[in-house]
Design goal:
Helix content is 43%, strand content 12%. The chain is built from 25 helices and 15 strands. The longest helix has 28 residues, at 477-504. The structure holds adenosine-5'-triphosphate. GO terms for molecular function: ATP binding; hydrolase activity; RNA binding; RNA helicase activity.
Length: 603
């Protein structure tokens, strides 16, 4: 982390005891924390060398068997903070042959199924060098009962699931509550601040009576909230509470100090103009990968179509896509196959969209249940580990200060730095004021935390107004609807048909690029390049300076975003182009020619 948090600023509170215990200067390595060598080897392979402050504090406590509540900022490394000691403990029990075998030993509960997959992958990768082969499964409430039965046969050592899913398993008799009681040795609630707000309260309450007092409980959260307190009271006996704050920054306990926060005041109508001014390639004001948040799926597609007019490619991540597609989009974005991702994270609009579609067929009571499941299962971005995002843009402001914290936390993760830019319209002023109050804390000096974006002059924006408005006008509501349906149809097809193929051929992932053009017409030629006279001299200077400073810190600005194909023609569709022959050609010489070619285009 940029603004290094020190161990001595971690508060350790025993229940009923609020004394701050200083930890001293000691900065132990993973090995010195006593973790199994097989785990530290996996960490080295991931180039994770030094523990983050929350890991340094939480790992020894969890290893000593304490119930722990850990509240630390987004991106501070909470996942390894609980996975490492949990896996160490399983390895120890397994080597002593004392693992109970009638049901899973560890349950990790998370608010969304996208997070289930992420935690499952992280845990599996940490076990790469372990000789004892543990079985980890991640379950989804939408799985057929038969698949759940297969996944739970054995039984697995670790189950990652949403609380709703565990409820489904117990109610369908796939998992017996009595066996959970007998075998569970550790229960972990990750993203605890979101668990209750995602509608899992009833399911958690149903599970709690089956958790024996002897079970070690861990609760991880990015923010402290009444929901976290509620869970703590419901579940944890005499926990140790760790709260991470950074030295010298009394009010920075929410947003990591390595994230620079900016805002731009503009009308709702001008947001497209401003986003163009921020993302135009020449001069480029924002480095690296960009994640843009909007509040509705329609706006996501409007924005994507608008950017396409300038040959700026992006992909849309939203709740209505099948989960395979969402995971695939995330994998590609994380691998750097495209540079701009537009994401929706607004639960209310998701719920409205989904429920209206279902309304004809659902009875009143099932609809209520369905809505609960939506909240539980369709989270898109909260807690998701987008890798190496350099800039987060709030095109629409989130609906709450907590939403701001979670969105901004998608950049500056681990030890990276990041930038956040929020476009604030007068209608969003009230919420922005609340966010500033939240960031100010006691200092009353909001400018330290969120400053006006310095790199865009009024003139630089106004010079682009005509072409931006021209492009915005040409994206009609009909275009947006068509693009949304076309994208969904394509993703459903891909998700179903290609799942098996990608499992066998992970290297083919890049063939299904998610930032392919959606517009039916080619972008107007006059919008493709920005003539020199339209580039404001001040912005040009800023662009040059930013380029130099990025080069100095090793951010490669020479890398081009994947460009449009000449002629706007039909790109190769893997559904149509996969053939046994081509596969054979790859298999014969061990190289994927198509992929090499594609990668070149994408670089
Ligand atoms: N010790 C470490 N050194 C370097 N990188 C790390 C370390 N620990 C974790 N990371 C990386 O930091 C990123 C963020 O970690 P993680 O997802 O655990 O954060 P988090 O605290 O759970 O965030 P959120 O609250 O947003 O879910 C991940 O990409 C992870 O691989």
């Amino acid at each position: 982390m940029g603004a290094e948090a020190k161990l001595d600023s971690i508060e350790r509170r025993e229940e009923g005891d609020v004394d701050v215990e200083k930890e001293g200067e000691e900065e132990k390595s993973f090995e010195e924390l006593g973790l199994d060598e097989q785990l530290t080897r996996a960490l080295r392979k991931k180039s994770v060398t030094d523990p983050t402050p929350i890991q340094r504090a939480a790992i020894p406590l969890i290893l000593s068997g304490k119930n722990v509540v850990a509240c630390a900022k987004t991106g501070s490394g909470k996942t390894f903070a609980y996975l490492l000691p949990m896996l160490h403990e399983l390895l120890r029990l397994s080597s002593e042959n004392s693992l109970r075998k009638s049901a899973p030993n560890v349950f990790i509960l998370v608010p969304t199924r996208d997070l289930c997959h992420q935690v499952y992958s992280e845990a599996s990768s940490l076990l790469e060098f372990c000789t004892n082969k543990f079985k980890i499964v991640h379950l989804m409430a939408t799985m057929p009962i038969q698949d759940m039965r297969v996944a739970l046969s054995g039984p697995p050592n670790i189950v990652v699931a949403t609380p709703a899913c565990i409820s489904t398993c117990t109610s369908k008799g796939v998992l017996r509550a009595s066996s959970i009681r007998e075998s569970i040795s550790m229960l972990i609630l990750d993203e605890a601040d979101l668990l209750l707000s995602h509608g899992h309260e009833a399911d958690l309450k149903a599970l709690i009576p089956h958790i024996p007092r002897s079970c070690q409980c861990i609760l991880m959260s990015a923010t402290t909230s009444p929901d976290v307190d509620k869970l703590k009271k419901l579940l944890l006996h005499e926990p140790v509470t760790l709260t991470l704050s950074e030295e010298g920054q009394s009010n920075s306990d929410l947003i990591p100090g390595n994230i620079e926060q900016y805002w731009i005041s503009c009308s709702a109508h001008d947001k497209l103009l401003y986003i163009y001014a921020l993302l135009k390639p020449k001069p480029r004001l924002l480095a690296g990968k960009v994640l843009i948040f909007v509040n509705s799926i329609d706006m996501a597609f409007r924005l994507r179509l608008f950017l396409e007019k300038f040959e700026i490619r992006s992909a849309v991540l939203n709740a209505e896509l099948p989960q395979n597609s969402r995971l695939h989009i995330l994998e590609e974005f994380n691998a750097g196959l495209f540079g701009i991702l537009i994401a929706t994270d607004d639960n209310q609009s998701k719920e409205k969209d989904q429920t209206s579609r279902e309304s004809q067929v659902q009875s009143r009571s099932t609809k209520k249940k369905f809505r609960q499941n939506l909240d539980a299962e369709f989270g898109v971005v909260r807690g998701i580990d987008f890798k190496n995002v350099f800039t987060v843009i709030n095109f629409d402001m989130p609906r709450s200060p907590a939403g701001y914290v979670h969105r901004i936390g998608r950049t500056g993760r681990g030890r990276n730095t990041g930038t956040a830019v929020s476009l604030v319209s007068p209608e969003e002023g009230e919420l922005f004021a609340k966010i500033k109050i939240m960031l100010e804390g006691d200092s009353r000096d909001d400018s330290v935390h969120i400053q006006p974006f310095p790199h865009l002059t009024k003139k630089a924006v106004e010079d682009l107004r005509y072409r931006a408005e021209d492009a915005a006008r040409s994206v009609t509501t009909r275009d947006v609807q068509d693009a949304r349906h076309q994208d969904l149809k394509k993703e459903i097809l891909n998700s179903e048909k290609l799942k098996a193929h990608f499992e066998e051929n992970p290297r083919d992932l890049d063939l299904l690029k998610h930032d392919k053009i959606l517009s039916k017409t080619a972008p107007p030629s006059h919008l493709r390049v920005i003539p020199d006279y339209l580039i404001d001299p001040t912005t040009k200077q800023v662009g040059k300076a930013l380029k130099l400073s990025r080069a100095a810190v090793g951010i490669n600005t020479a890398k081009k975003r994947p460009g449009f194909k000449k002629g706007f023609g039909r790109s190769s569709d893997p559904l149509k182009t996969f053939s046994a022959e081509k596969k054979k050609r790859r298999d014969n010489d061990g190289k994927d020619h198509r992929q090499k070619k594609k990668l070149k285009v994408g670089e």
